[in-house]
Amino acid sequence: MLSIKNPLFIKRTLCSSLHLQPIRRVSIKTTIISDKDAEKSNDVEFITHPLFPHPVFDQKDCESIEVTHREPRTIGDKIAHNGILFFRSSFDLVTGYKKPHTPEQLAHGFKGTRYEMTAGKWLTRCIFLESVAGVPGMVAAFLRHLHSIRLLKRDKAWIETLLDEAYNERMHLLTFMKIGKPSWFTRFIIYVGQGVFCNIFFLVYLMNPRYCHRFVGYLEEEAVETYTHMIHDLDANKFPELNKLNVPEIAIQYWPKLTKESTMRDLILRIRADESKHREVNHTLANLDQKSDRNPFALQVETDKPQPENGLKVTRPEGWERSDIVLSNEK
Ligand SMILES: [Fe+2]
Ligand SMILES: [Fe+2]
């Protein structure tokens, strides 16, 4: 009951007498968009052919993606890895997420604590992660593009893979935006966060691109781990409201093999596979000579040795060593 001593009563009275809207509650939870509402905001007519068509991933290959870690070997690697651990633990603390370290923690899911996950919290996490992940590829491609046209030099095919990565991350984000509606506070954090992260990444890439690719490699290791946890929770049917959802049309048009009958699990499996590819690409790019080596994922040569490729058939999750890659025309 509202009484004059009740703070809610005072707030409402003040707001109505001053003709103000009550201040909206600070929340980071994302609201799931029901299939009925999704139809209302159906903008399928605006979906164009993908600028970078997605390679075909088999369901079996997507299922077999594993959480991996490349041990830091240089001081730069250690700084990159510790940087990611710092950002991740700060983000986890603020958003109420805890990485499960034991099978019990994975099964129990920190029930009853502030670390218990909900469907809304998962979506917030995915949306924030993807909004950050879309920055490095675009910034790196932008800088390499300027470098190429300023110095009148070939780029050796790095730009296209970096742009493809940025495009792929934005497709992840656009897909999640069709599933959940983030709160104003989440949008605000994303807005400010991008301003800070984008500028820092730009400056550091100018000075040390190798360090930046290693940093992204470690970021992607964390992304694979997060999506693996999410797939576990979907399998355990912890959030039936997510398992019931239809896969958005934008995702069906982008990922080969996704159909109207596909589930959220099928979608997250493919997003995790994409992250595993970014992990491999960025750890590999960090192993190469930043100025003179070609990008072996885009510009391939004929050889009998296994070499990097864009699919999931031949992979090195910790990155290809420079000595394993045929970088010139010798066989
Ligand atoms: Fe992503
Ligand atoms: Fe990624």
UniProtKB/TrEMBL annotation:
Protein role: Catalyzes cyanide-resistant oxygen consumption. May increase respiration when the cytochrome respiratory pathway is restricted, or in response to low temperatures.
Cofactor note: Binds 2 iron ions per subunit.
Biased composition (Basic and acidic residues): 315-331
Chief localisation class: mitochondrion
Gene Ontology molecular function: alternative oxidase activity; metal ion binding
CDD domains listed in its UniProt record: AOX (cd01053)
Cofactor(s) this protein cannot do without: Fe cation
Protein name per the record: Alternative oxidase
Stretches for region Disordered: 294-331
Signal peptide: none
Classification via Pfam families: AOX (PF01786)
EC numbers for this chain: 1.-.-.-
PANTHER family: ALTERNATIVE OXIDASE
Family note: Belongs to the alternative oxidase family.
Enzyme class: oxidoreductase
Entry keyword set: Electron transport, Iron, Membrane, Metal-binding, Mitochondrion, Mitochondrion inner membrane, Oxidoreductase, Respiratory chain, Transit peptide, Transmembrane, Transmembrane helix, Transport
Any coiled-coil regions, as ranges: none
Positions annotated to bind Fe cation 2: 169, 220, 275, 278
Binding positions for Fe cation 1 per the UniProt entry: 130, 169, 172, 275
Record InterPro entries: AOX (IPR002680), AOX_sf (IPR038659)
Protein's UniProt keywords contain Iron: yes
Gene Ontology terms describing biological process: alternative respiration
Species for this entry: [Candida] railenensis
Domain of life: Eukaryota
Subcellular location field: Mitochondrion inner membrane
Gene3D superfamilies associated with the record: Alternative oxidase
Membrane-spanning parts: 184-206
